[in-house]
Amino acid sequence: MAETEIKRVNFFDGQFLKQEELNDLTNYAVRMQRRLLFALFDKSGVIETGSADLAVEVPNPAQKAIRVRAGMAIGRRSDVAEAHEIILRQDVTSISLTVASASVPVPLQPGDTGIVTIHYDEQPSGGDAAHPTRIKETAVVTVHRNAPPEPNPARPLIVLGKVAFDSMVVTPGQRQRTQINAGLTGGKPLQQSAVISSIDPQQALQGSSVQITIAGMKLGGATAINFDKPGITVQNIQSDLAGARITAMLTVAANAALGTNHFTVTTSGGPVDSPANAFSVLAAPQVTAVTPATSGPGGEISVRGVNIRDPRLGDGQPATGTEILFLHADTSDVLAKSANVTVAPNIGTSQQVKVKLPPVAEWRVPLLLGVRVRVRLIFQRATAEAPGAPLQVFLQ
Fold it and tell me: CA–CA separation, 376 vs 285, rounded Å?
């Protein structure tokens, strides 16, 4: 039951102090701070001083793991007029979505969505179990499978983001935010600064072109997107009326510098900077091997290499964005192309795709006597050809 009176401890000379009095002194300060936070903020959510605060990120989609950046949130209770201060002091790195853990009670499966939340908790600490000397306050990050649990008024959950397990894409605009109560600012909500929260995809290859989506707040009227390193150009920029989403076509020069970049969006309200290292330029695709050396219409070959497919895709999925052409070994004429390309398990550091050769009717030359072809791979509009001897294609 909630207390109906507010009392603080009063000391006097010669008073015999017990544990209860000293704990009351601490509890008074804690409860007053929580009442102040309840009055100060309008709801549970992230205190957003920048787009990296408690951001959910996917460092390597192929590993099916996420990272949650450090930051602060407010958990506003609904049962009493108090709010918890939730502080994540350091980044939480490499939360695997496929392994059961304290952070992932139920591992995710294909087709699932991970709901990433944070909440306040406290546990006795120091001394021994019967006589702890401290109360440890913690921020608990949890990934829930498809839906969060039933609300607990004493431990409000704050949604930080949603992650699609298959693509490992963090859905923009899903995390809860808090701000100063409008009643404390003359009845008007505090104006929020423009912010860039994400860019998708987060990487592109040398010599490639990709459609990008930038999410954030107050990004309306975008007219330009400039990266800090040369070799990246952006065209066809369009922003929605809410200023929450920008789409554009990004082109990376073949000689663009490898590594991470940050970028600036020019909006109607002025320039808006992305977080540092928001976007990466990777080396152009490279095919290292094609096996077997002989196949036929309807047969399957394996193509291995570096940066030859979208790393966010899982084994067995269609290798969306990757295309395979079969070129005449002598004339370089395109003889056929495969529409059936699927993701296969990596071999060491090499990516791999499985390619089904087109049926006889789709080849532009007779195959009765066989034909020697070069395999050309296209990913993000960047091309790479297989080294070594040509692939022999025969009727089988």
Answer: 11
- Which CATH number does the domain 286-393 belong to among 2.60.40.420, 2.60.40.10, 2.120.10.80, 2.60.120.200? 2.60.40.10
Dump pLDDT digits (tens) for 198-245.
888 888 999 999 999 998 888 889 999 999 889 999 999 998 887 888
Q: Which architecture does CATH list for 195-282?
A: Sandwich (2.60)
Residue-by-residue DSSP string for 271-315: EEEPPTT-EEEEPPPEEEEEE-SEE-TT-EEEEEEES-S-TTSPT
Classify each residue of 114-148 as buried b or exposed e, where b means 16 or more C-beta atoms within 10 Å of its C-beta: bbbbbbbeeeeeeeeeeeeeeeeeebebbbbbeee
223, burial (CB in 10 Å: exposed 0-12, middle 13-18, buried 19+): exposed
Helices (H), the chain: 19-40
